[in-house]
Each structure stands twice: as structure tokens, then as C-alpha cells.
């Protein structure tokens, strides 16, 4: 028995040992992902299909770095640079400041020389008119006489001036202020230029009649438009208020007095004027106006807008009540000649120049300026010429600057593109040093700054931005430092955040403008740029990117191919793109390319390839030639990998950009956008911000037509013969390549099979929370660009906000649109795995970790339930935050924006904005509107070695360059019965027949003789005949329609330009239809069609480029933190309704302002001096993304929301 017990004990011991061994083996098979207790309040990190996320991100990091090392040759190129000898090019700050001021002064001299020479030529012609600029004598406005004057001026200028810039001149003869000689113009700069003569602050109060007793709806509308015009003619040093005289009186924030005419105040006054509608309330005026002028001194111009001059006792009583010992009141009247009131003798009231009448055949700004003629001005401040403030010109769709000169016989002016004037600031390059240039006026208004977008990318009038805003300085900096008074100097200042800076400035010959250098590091006394002492030999095969010009040249046609069936490309060599940074004057080079593209390109390449150093530099920066040779050394590697790499089907292109000169070289070589700026692209900017990391950009629309791509970029440093490179070494270039978005899905699925499971989602996001990849981005018709974590993973976003030291919600001030931007900043130095907070919803589990050595995080989400209760507030209408009064770190919300101005009567930005950093400069992305697309050249082969149709399954089609899995029918809803792999152009975003959002226009600079001759089909003459017949039929139908349809009163008779300085009310002389007389236009329709004044962007309704895709979901809080163009949809052109062909308008009245085109008699194709009436009527919508059209609404009409 005893032996039996002993045996049992031994057996139990053996079994226990075996169990322990088994348990140990089992525990070793399952990896342990949680080492010790987590410092965070979260659940333990568990393995994912037997693999820890920490190991997954390390594995992903190695693969991404190997990808860029193999395909881009980062290590190889760095080795090439290490073999080169670099020297520093040192330029003192004083020298850079001299160069900038000299460049601006040379341009100003060129402008003034043109005005002086033109004025001396036309003076003898205009002196015959013998009238002063503000003469009140009777003027003749005969159209034949106007044509004769303009014809004489044109002939004289053409015979005496060699510079063709005179063709841009606008000349307003004093004797005929209704005639504008020159190219078509809105003439809205005439009034401000005339008022700029008086360099003294003006106090203005507008009294607007609204009573229905004698003011008709049309009279009130004209008074409102005129009031807005006056407000927009004033400058920020002026003060203004608008008072409605009906229903007891109304004013905007009367307790604040006359307010300075800031951009924000103009917007508020515009809205206030719109609210002053025609009133039937019979109530006497009771509003006390004395508080409005309590701080005003000097002169007060009181302008009364009315159509009745019979009883002015009320207005005269107001004027008498406002007079003080230190305030002189000048009463002026704008009399509206209404057909509902008996005619008055205008001479009786206007003999002393205090009354002007509307409608007028003169330029409205000219007439309004007459009301200020009697004010006292500082004669010592009179300038020989005047520069207007920058403004957005709606005809050319560009930011412009007017240069004007006022004589006793005429007002001469011409428009200059602001981008050409400030190009030296826009492309001011100092390498990695903390020095930036800016142009500012004496009021502190910035004209150009590093944080501004390029002027050619601005699509509507921005708000004024001030030096103290972007540099975070005190508002009185301009005065305290002496910048406004001292012609030059240097001073050290401290920002509101305690950062020390140096300001180096110099006044220009136009005394109101100042060029300034801001130095963030006080030890900086010069700029240093690394240059190669002995550049390597340039490969002989490199080409200029304008391959379209090579079709008719001596380039072998078999070396060219078509890229995505829309651009000419080559696989034989790489190409070089000379960005605007490469030239001393980008504007001048653009003109040369437009005039003779082939010759200009040949001169570029000849100079770059010249080894004798005998050829003249065609206007390039000194470092361009060497940079082209250095970057070209890696092009052979690009070419080799393109042909031999197993990933060639997924890599769109490889490219490298010089930091110093902005030279861009890429392979395969293809034609690029004519206005591409590589230094403002996301891949470039982020790579410089994080020089020690591999940077992945969120997906964007490839400019070459390959659909949505992701850029991988990395910097290379100045060569060093010994030692390892660090992130603080000077950066020489940025290398990058584009891969398809589908390739990232392929890579993740192959590396981590769990990502392909139905209940698992693997995603990549950058350090701002924007998705680099997410499975939902591959879905047909889904929005791809600018998608944030808060848009796609609500619970994850809610949960991670509770993790300490991981994410920080921030705000920055965007002063150009008057908003504060809220965004996220994630900690990419995190060295741990994040997972659900303990109290989180465990039916949705996630893990998140940073990918080492990159700017992205890898997230894995496992969903085991169908409903999620998490909520992340996002506006579905615009980008506004749902609660602008509070921002809590743990509250989930999409990146959004709020107004910098919290109340209607707030004169300045919120005080909290002074503590905010200004938002960084916007980054450009995608294809531009001037994309140089070409017509398909059938004679050239395709660059792609494969056909999308050859791939039968979705998995095979995924990620292929230029291919898209087509699975949705053209209605954007129905699934195709037989999905197939298609070209992107045929099935964009997976929708059959969906238009690809690319332009199809060619270079405007291309000359027909420089493009290969194309064979036209024999059906051309027949098609032309049919087209001509259709056009004739269309014109006939249009004329019939025009005669038969009752046109609305606004479109029929009222002609209003943007910022209406040319204005008439011709309907007052028309025989209107009874239906038009009975109709009372709604204020909203008036505002949409009649009151289209050039105004800054409202801080209360921020205009955006965002457009929701057809059939897509709402935007769920479209973000503004990465301001890319929403290139997924086509742009809509602004509608322009033109009824022309006669010298009279619809009502048979001669237009109020005539325009004669200045042209040389030898080259003019029309009669010299012919009067060209402005388009009438014109509906200008301000922004190209809003379309307003008259429609008939029927009861049974289906509603279509787009």
C-alpha cells in the first residue's frame, strides 16, 4: 500500500512538471507585447494575429526606407554629393537689402517714365479741350468726339513710343470724363486715385434716403450701390458711417463713432447698406448722430443720397447739429434723377459743385471724387504719381496694382500684375537661414510676405494683413521703431510670444513703400548658401521639359511617347524644369516664353550645356547651371530603376529638386505645368521641416493624369568627406517619388495579412492626423483629398484625445481670410503603442504607433459590432467650427475654423489672436488651372508597357499606374454587372464615364509653326459648314428669344460693374412692361445681381474652393489645415452675359462710359479709336465657384441637391 502511494505521488509530480513545460511552450508561442505596467490608462497591448504592433511598425519602417533607397537612390546620391567639394556663398544682409530696393526702384522708374513720356505726348491733344479736372462747366459727351480724341491719342503714342507698354494705358480726359481711352477696364481705380491726392484722413457720413413716399425701389437700389462705392473708395486712414434716414434712423454701432475703413468694416457696412431697404414706415428721424462724430475733428463730409431736392430742412438741420468749433461740416448731395419725380434744374443746385446727379454718363468714381474737392489737403504730400492698394481685378482674375498720374487735362493710369511687382519678395531665397523678406507700406499693411500664397493663386480679394499680425509684434511697431519715418535702419524687437527679432528696412523711391528683412536669429549677419566648387559633367541626353516644342525639331520621334494619353513624354532621358526660382526676373522670362517659346528654351539649354563659358546668361540665377549638373547625376539611376524595378507598374515618377535654385529634374521626362513651384509643394515643405525623416504626403491628384498618388520624400545634405550626416547639416536637395494610393494598400496587405480581413482596417496618418491611406479612400465615389482621422475613425479619434502627451489641439491665425484655424498636432516622438482607454467601447479595438524614422503612424482597428456611439462634430455645410466659444483638448471635432472677429461691432481682432502664431504659408498641390495638356497625338506610342485591360481581377488592377477598377455605372449608384480594369480617364474613381478633373488646354505660348503639323480629316469642310449653320440658327433663336422674353428689370436696364465706378440707371428712360413696374425686386436678388462690389473675403462667410463631389457624402468638416485645391471636381467658369453689337443698350440709351482700345494703326484690325461699350448687362459673381442664374420654378419640378 505504501509503495502504491509513493508511485501515485511520483506520477503526480511528473504530470505537474509536464504541465509546467507545456504552459511554458505555449506562452513562448504567443509573443508578449506588454512589458510591465503601461504608464497610460489603457488596456494591455495584445498581439495582432500573433504579431506585436511594435514589430509591425519597425518592419514597415525598414520596408519604406528600403523602397526609397532602392528606387530613389537616396544613399547613392548622398554618396555622390560627399565626393563633391562645397563652398559657402556668403552675402551680407545689407547687400541683399540693396538688391531688393534697387529692383523695386527700377520697376517704379520704368512705370513713371512711361507715365511721363505718355503725358508729354498727349498733352497737346488734350490742352485743346481747355478744362480743369474739376471744372463744373458744361461738357459735351458726343461719342464721335470721344472716338476722335482716343484715335488721336493712339496715333500719337504709337508714333512716338517704342515700348509697347503704352497699350496698357488708361487715359481719362478731363473734358470727357465719360470716355476712357485704353483697353477694357472696370475703371474702379479712378476714384481712389483721385482721392489719394489729399493725403489727410477724411471723415465721411452718408445719409441714405429710404422713404417710399418719394424713393422708388430702383432709386433705393442705386443709392445703395453708390453708398458701397463711396465706402470702397476710402482708405484705412479715413473714417466713415452710413445712416439710414427712414423709420427713425439707423446706423451701424453708433456708440463707436466714425470707424476706420478697414476691410472688415467695409464688409459690415456692405451688409448694413443692404439692410437699408425701402421703408413704408412714416416716422420722423430721431437718431442722435452727435455720438458718431464725438472724436472727429477737422472736416466732415456729409453726403446725402436722395432723389428729392424740394425740402432739405431735415438734412440741413442734421448738418447744423453736427457742427463744432473744431469740426467743419461740408454738405454734399447725390441726386438720383427718378422718372417717378418731376425733373429738376440740376444747374440750380450744382453751380457750386456740391451736387452730382445719377445716372451719369461719366465714370462714377470721377463724379464722386468731385464731392471731396473742397477739402483742405497737405500740399507738401502731393506725389508725382500714385500707387493704388492691391486689388483683385475680376476681368483678368488676378491681383493687380494701379499706377496713376493726375494732370490738369487727364488722369493716366495703367495696371500692373502684383505678382510681377513683388516677384523679388515671392522668390527671395536664403537657404535654411532664418531670414525672410517682406514689402510693407507706412500703415503697416503687408503687400507680400513669406506666409502669403503666390499672387497668381489668389482667386478673390483677400483681407489686408499687417506686419504686426504675421510677425506677432505690437501694433505700434511701425511708429516705435521709426520704420514709418526713417528712410533706413535696423532695430531689435521682441514678439508677443517673447521671441527676439531684428528688422532691417529701407524706403523706396515711392515713400509709402518699405522693403524689410526680418531676422529670427540675432547672430545672422549674412546669408550662406552651399555651392559646388567644381560641378560634375552634365549628361548629354538631358532635355528641357517642354517636349511639345521638340515635335517639330531635330529630336527623334521614336524617343517620344504619350503619357496617360494626354502629355508628351520620353523614356530615353530625364528632363529639367526651370522653376520661377531659377530666374532673376520670373515675369520677364514668362514674357519671353510667351513670345518665342522654342527660341527661349533653346537659349536655356545652350547656356546650361555650354562648357566654354562664352554664352551669355539668359537671365538665370548664378547657381542654376551647377545645380542642373549636380542633380543630373542621379537621373541615370532613375532610368535604370524604371526599366528594371519590379515596382515600375506602381511608381509614377521620380524627381529631385535643388534647395538653392529650385531646379527640378525628373524621370520619366514629361511636360509639366507652366506655373509649377516645387518649393511650395507638400512633399518639399514637409521634407525640409523634418530633415531626418522619410516623409509621406496625404494623397492628392497627380498633375500628370495618373489619378491619386502619395509622395515619399527625403532630403540629402551638403557633401561631407568624413563623418556621418545629421539632421542639422545644410540641405542641398529634396528627393521624391510618387506611388499610387493603391500600392500602399498592396504593400500593407502583403506585409500584414490581417489588414485584408473584413473586420480589420489598417490605416496610415501623418503628424497632423490627415490620412495617408485608409481602406475607405479606395471606395468608388469616396472623397480622397484632405481626409482626416476625425472623418473616418470617430471612436479612435475620441479615444486618443484622452491619451496624455500624444495629441495637442492647436490654433493659428489666418489673417488673409480673418479666421482662426483649429488643427491637431500628434507626437511623432512617441515610443509606445496606444490602445483603447480602459473605459472605451471594446467592440471597436485599435492600436496605434509611430512608424520609426517617418512622419506617419500605423493604426489597426478591429470592429466586432455594427453600431458605434462615438460622435465627432463636423460641419456638413462649410468649414466652420460648431462651437467657437470653447476649445477643449478632449473634445473631438474635425479641423475647422472660426472668425477672428467675435462680434459685429468689434473693431479689432480678438485679443487672444495676438497670442496665436500665424498660420504657415499655404502649400500648393495637384494640377493647376493652366495645366499644359495636349491633344492626343496618335502617331506617338504609349509610354506604358502594359494595358489596363489585361488585368482581370480587382487585386491585379489595384495600384497600377493609370489604371482604375471600374465597378460603378455612370449614375454613380448602380453596380456594374461585369467590373473591369480600366484607364483612369475612362473610369475616374471607379465610376464609369466619370470625367477626369484635368484641363485640356495647351500652352498659350505655343506657336502653331512650332508644333508638328497634324493631318486633318477630309470631313473638316463639311463639319465646318454644319457648324456655321448651327451657329447662325442659334443666333437667330437667341435674338428671337431676346425680343420675346420679359427680361427682369435688373438685367434689362441696370448696368453695374464690380466695384461700380461705371454705373447708369438707363431703365429710367425706358418704357417698361407693366409686369416689370408691378414687380418689386427682393433685396436678396438685388444683392446677388446688382450689388457686386469688389470686397474682401468676409470673416463671417469664408469663401472656399471646396466642392462636394456629385453623388458623394457630405464633407463632414472639410479641413483647411492643408489648403490644397480640391481638384476632384471640375472648375466652373464665371458666367458673363453680354448683349452687344450696337452702340446703344437694350433701352436705346448710349452707354455711360465709352472705352477705346489703344492700339497701333499698323497692327489694329479694327477702326482706330472705335468706341467699345462695356459688356451690358454683366452679372459678375465674384467667386468662380458660385453660379447664380435666373430660373423658372414649377410646382412639380424635381429637387436636385448638388
Describe, in plain words, how this protein is organized in 3D:
- With 1202 residues, the protein is of the alpha+beta class.
- The protein contains 28 helices and 47 strands.
- Helices cover 25% and strands 20% of the residues.
- The protein is globular.
- β17 and β18 (500-507) form a beta hairpin.
- The strands form 11 sheets. Strands 21, 24, 25, 26, 28, 29, 30 and 31 form an 8-stranded mixed sheet that branches.
- Among the domains are: 73-84 and 533-739, 2-Layer Sandwich (Beta-Lactamase), CATH 3.30.450; 198-382, von Willebrand factor, type A domain (Rossmann fold); 419-531, Beta-Lactamase (2-Layer Sandwich); 757-902, no CATH class; 948-992, no CATH class.
Q: Compute the CA-based radius of gyration.
A: 34 Å
Q: Give the DSSP E fraction (strand runs of 2 or more residues).
A: 15-25%
Q: Mean pLDDT score, rounded?
A: 78
CATH H-level homologous superfamily name of the domain at 73-84 and 533-739: PAS domain
- What is the CATH third-level topology name of the domain at 73-84 and 533-739? Beta-Lactamase
Amino acid at each position: 500500500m505504501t509503495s502504491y502511494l509513493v508511485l501515485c505521488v511520483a506520477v503526480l509530480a511528473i504530470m505537474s512538471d509536464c504541465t509546467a513545460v507545456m504552459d511554458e511552450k505555449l506562452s513562448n508561442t504567443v509573443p508578449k507585447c506588454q512589458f510591465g505596467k503601461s504608464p497610460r490608462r489603457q488596456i494591455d497591448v495584445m498581439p495582432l494575429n500573433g504579431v506585436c504592433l511594435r514589430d509591425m511598425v519597425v518592419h514597415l519602417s525598414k520596408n519604406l526606407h528600403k523602397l526609397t533607397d532602392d528606387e530613389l537612390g537616396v544613399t547613392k546620391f548622398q554618396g555622390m554629393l560627399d565626393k563633391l567639394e562645397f563652398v559657402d556663398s556668403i552675402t551680407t544682409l545689407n547687400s541683399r537689402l540693396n538688391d531688393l530696393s534697387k529692383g523695386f526702384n527700377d520697376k517704379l522708374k520704368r512705370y513713371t517714365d512711361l507715365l511721363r513720356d505718355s503725358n508729354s505726348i498727349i498733352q497737346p491733344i488734350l490742352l485743346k479741350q481747355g478744362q480743369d479736372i474739376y471744372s463744373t462747366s458744361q461738357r459735351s459727351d458726343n461719342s464721335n468726339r470721344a472716338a476722335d480724341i482716343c484715335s488721336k491719342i493712339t496715333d500719337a503714342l504709337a508714333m512716338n513710343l517704342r515700348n509697347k507698354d503704352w497699350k496698357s494705358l488708361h487715359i481719362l480726359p478731363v473734358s470727357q470724363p465719360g470716355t476712357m481711352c485704353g483697353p477694357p477696364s472696370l475703371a474702379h481705380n479712378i476714384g481712389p486715385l483721385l482721392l489719394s491726392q489729399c493725403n489727410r484722413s477724411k471723415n465721411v457720413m452718408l445719409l441714405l434716403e429710404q422713404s417710399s413716399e418719394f424713393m422708388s425701389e430702383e432709386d433705393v437700389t442705386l443709392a445703395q450701390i453708390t453708398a458701397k462705392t463711396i465706402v470702397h473708395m476710402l482708405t484705412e486712414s479715413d473714417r466713415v458711417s452710413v445712416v439710414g434716414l427712414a423709420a427713425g434712423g439707423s446706423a451701424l454701432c453708433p456708440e463707436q463713432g466714425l470707424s476706420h475703413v478697414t476691410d472688415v468694416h467695409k464688409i459690415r457696412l456692405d451688409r448694413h447698406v443692404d439692410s437699408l431697404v425701402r421703408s413704408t414706415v412714416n416716422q420722423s428721424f430721431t437718431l442722435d448722430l452727435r455720438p458718431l462724430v464725438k472724436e472727429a475733428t477737422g472736416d466732415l463730409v456729409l453726403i446725402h443720397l436722395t432723389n428729392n431736392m424740394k425740402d432739405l430742412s431735415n438734412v440741413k438741420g442734421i448738418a447744423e447739429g453736427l457742427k463744432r468749433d473744431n469740426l467743419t461740416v461740408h454738405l454734399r448731395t447725390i441726386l438720383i434723377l427718378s422718372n417717378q419725380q418731376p425733373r429738376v434744374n440740376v444747374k440750380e443746385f450744382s453751380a457750386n459743385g456740391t451736387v452730382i446727379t445719377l445716372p451719369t454718363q461719366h465714370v462714377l468714381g470721377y463724379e464722386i471724387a468731385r464731392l471731396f474737392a473742397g477739402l483742405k489737403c497737405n500740399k507738401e504730400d502731393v506725389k508725382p504719381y500714385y500707387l493704388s492698394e492691391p486689388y483683385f481685378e475680376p476681368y483678368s482674375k488676378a491681383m493687380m496694382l494701379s499706377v496713376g498720374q493726375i494732370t490738369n487735362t487727364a488722369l493716366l493710369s495703367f495696371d500692373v500684375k502684383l505678382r510681377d511687382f513683388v516677384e523679388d519678395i515671392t522668390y527671395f531665397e536664403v537657404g535654411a537661414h532664418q531670414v525672410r523678406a517682406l514689402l510693407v507700406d507706412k500703415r503697416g499693411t503687408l503687400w507680400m510676405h513669406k506666409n502669403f500664397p503666390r499672387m497668381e493663386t489668389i482667386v478673390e480679394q483677400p483681407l489686408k494683413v499687417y506686419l504686426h499680425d504675421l510677425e506677432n509684434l505690437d501694433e505700434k511697431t511701425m511708429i516705435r521703431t521709426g520704420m514709418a519715418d526713417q528712410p533706413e535702419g535696423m532695430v531689435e524687437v521682441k514678439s508677443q510670444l517673447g521671441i527676439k527679432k531684428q528688422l532691417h528696412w529701407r524706403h523706396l523711391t515711392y515713400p509709402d513703400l518699405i522693403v524689410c528683412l526680418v531676422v529670427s536669429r540675432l547672430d545672422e549677419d549674412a546669408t550662406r548658401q552651399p555651392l559646388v566648387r567644381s560641378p560634375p559633367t552634365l549628361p548629354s541626353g538631358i532635355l528641357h521639359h517642354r517636349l511639345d516644342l521638340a515635335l517639330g525639331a531635330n529630336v527623334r520621334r521614336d524617343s517620344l511617347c504619350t503619357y496617360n494619353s494626354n502629355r508628351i513624354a520620353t523614356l530615353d532621358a530625364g528632363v529639367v524644369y526651370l522653376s520661377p526660382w531659377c530666374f532673376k526676373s520670373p515675369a520677364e522670362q514668362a514674357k519671353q516664353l510667351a513670345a518665342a517659346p522654342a527660341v527661349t528654351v533653346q537659349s536655356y539649354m545652350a547656356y546650361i550645356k555650354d562648357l566654354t563659358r562664352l554664352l551669355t546668361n539668359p537671365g538665370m540665377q548664378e547657381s542654376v547651371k551647377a545645380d542642373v549638373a549636380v542633380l543630373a547625376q542621379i537621373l541615370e539611376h532613375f532610368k535604370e530603376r524604371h526599366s528594371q524595378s519590379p515596382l515600375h507598374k506602381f511608381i509614377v515618377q521620380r524627381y529631385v529638386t535643388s534647395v538653392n535654385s529650385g531646379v527640378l529634374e525628373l524621370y520619366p521626362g514629361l511636360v509639366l505645368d507652366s506655373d509649377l513651384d516645387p518649393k511650395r509643394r507638400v512633399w518639399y515643405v514637409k521634407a525640409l521641416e523634418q530633415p531626418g525623416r522619410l516623409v509621406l504626403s496625404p494623397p492628392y491628384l497627380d498633375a500628370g493624369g495618373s489619378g491619386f498618388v502619395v509622395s515619399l520624400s527625403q532630403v540629402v545634405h551638403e557633401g561631407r568627406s568624413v563623418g556621418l550626416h545629421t539632421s542639422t547639416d545644410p540641405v542641398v536637395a529634396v528627393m521624391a517619388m510618387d506611388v499610387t494610393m493603391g500600392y500602399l494598400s498592396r504593400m500593407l496587405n502583403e506585409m500584414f495579412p490581417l489588414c485584408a480581413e473584413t473586420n480589420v482596417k489598417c490605416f496610415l496618418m501623418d503628424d497632423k492626423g490627415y490620412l495617408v491611406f485608409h481602406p475607405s479612400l479606395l471606395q468608388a465615389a469616396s472623397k480622397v483629398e484632405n481626409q482626416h482621422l476625425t472623418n473616418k475613425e470617430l471612436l479612435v479619434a475620441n479615444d486618443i484625445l484622452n491619451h496624455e502627451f500624444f495629441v495637442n489641439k492647436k490654433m493659428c491665425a489666418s489673417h488673409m481670410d480673418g479666421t482662426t484655424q483649429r488643427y491637431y498636432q500628434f507626437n511623432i516622438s512617441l515610443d509606445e503603442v496606444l490602445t483603447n482607454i480602459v473605459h472605451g467601447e471594446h467592440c471597436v479595438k485599435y492600436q496605434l504607433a509611430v512608424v520609426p524614422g517617418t512622419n506617419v503612424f500605423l493604426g489597426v482597428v478591429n470592429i466586432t459590432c455594427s453600431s458605434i456611439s462615438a460622435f465627432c462634430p463636423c460641419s456638413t455645410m462649410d468649414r466652420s467650427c460648431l462651437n467657437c466659444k470653447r476649445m477643449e483638448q478632449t473634445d473631438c471635432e474635425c479641423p475647422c475654423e472660426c472668425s477672428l472677429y467675435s462680434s459685429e461691432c468689434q473693431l479689432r481682432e480678438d485679443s487672444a489672436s495676438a497670442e496665436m502664431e500665424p498660420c504657415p504659408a499655404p502649400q500648393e498641390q495637384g494640377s493647376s488651372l493652366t495645366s499644359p495638356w495636349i491633344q492626343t497625338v496618335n502617331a506617338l506610342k504609349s509610354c506604358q508597357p502594359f494595358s489596363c485591360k489585361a488585368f482581370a481581377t480587382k487585386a491585379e488592377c489595384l495600384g497600377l499606374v493609370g489604371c482604375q477598377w471600374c465597378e460603378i455605372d455612370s449614375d454613380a449608384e448602380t453596380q456594374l454587372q461585369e467590373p473591369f480594369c480600366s484607364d483612369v480617364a475612362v473610369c475616374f474613381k471607379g465610376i464609369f464615364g466619370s470625367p477626369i478633373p484635368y484641363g485640356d488646354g495647351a500652352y498659350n505660348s505655343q506657336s502653331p509653326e512650332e508644333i508638328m503639323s497634324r493631318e486633318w480629316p477630309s470631313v473638316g469642310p463639311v463639319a465646318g459648314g454644319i457648324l456655321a449653320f448651327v451657329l447662325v440658327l442659334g443666333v437667330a433663336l437667341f435674338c428671337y428669344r431676346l425680343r420675346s422674353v420679359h427680361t427682369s428689370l435688373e438685367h434689362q436696364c441696370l448696368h453695374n460693374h464690380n466695384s461700380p465706378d461705371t454705373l447708369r440707371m438707363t431703365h429710367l428712360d425706358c418704357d417698361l412692361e407693366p409686369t416689370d413696374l408691378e414687380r418689386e425686386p427682393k433685396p436678396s436678388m438685388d444683392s446677388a445681381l446688382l450689388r457686386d462690389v469688389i470686397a474682401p473675403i468676409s470673416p463671417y462667410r469664408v469663401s472656399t474652393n471646396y466642392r462636394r463631389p456629385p453623388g458623394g457624402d457630405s464633407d463632414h468638416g472639410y479641413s483647411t489645415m492643408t489648403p490644397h485645391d480640391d481638384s476632384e471636381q471640375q472648375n466652373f467658369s464665371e458666367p458673363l452675359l453680354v448683349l452687344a453689337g450696337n452702340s446703344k443698350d437694350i433701352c436705346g440709351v448710349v452707354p455711360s462710359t465709352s472705352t477705346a482700345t489703344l492700339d497701333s494703326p499698323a497692327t489694329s484690325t479694327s477702326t482706330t479709336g472705335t468706341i467699345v461699350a462695356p459688356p451690358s448687362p454683366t452679372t459678375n459673381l465674384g467667386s468662380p465657384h458660385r453660379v447664380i442664374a435666373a430660373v423658372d420654378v414649377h410646382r412639380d419640378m424635381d429637387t436636385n441637391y448638388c
